[in-house]
Write a structure and sequence with these properties.
Blueprint (H helix, E strand, L loop, with lengths): L13 H7 L3 E5 L2 E6 L1 H4 L2 H8 L1 E7 L6 E8 L2 H4 L1
Antiparallel strand pairs: 1-2, 3-4
């Protein structure tokens, strides 16, 4: 920030992205699902919509960002 440098990276580990990114862009099938602060992008619903899994979100004491714990596969057909 002091040097006014922007770094763009692609991460497939959601927890690493949340921990080290100021902003996250979540995509699904080539389209933007959500963009913003990690705590606004990494929601249970967004993760279910994109990855098809149920998760629990917690905040670790040392970080103020969500930490994603997978609980299992989410099946939309079962919920209907």
């Amino acid at each position: 920030r002091e040097e006014k440098i922007t770094i763009i990276t692609t991460l497939h580990d959601i927890n690493l992205a949340a921990r080290y990114s100021d902003y996250i862009l979540l995509m699904n099938k080539g389209k933007i699902k959500a963009f913003g602060l990690p705590e606004n992008v990494l929601t249970k619903q967004n993760i279910q919509d994109v990855y098809g899994i149920e998760v629990k979100l917690i905040k670790l004491n040392e970080y103020e960002v969500p930490y994603v714990i997978t609980l299992g596969w989410y099946c939309k057909e079962k919920k209907m």
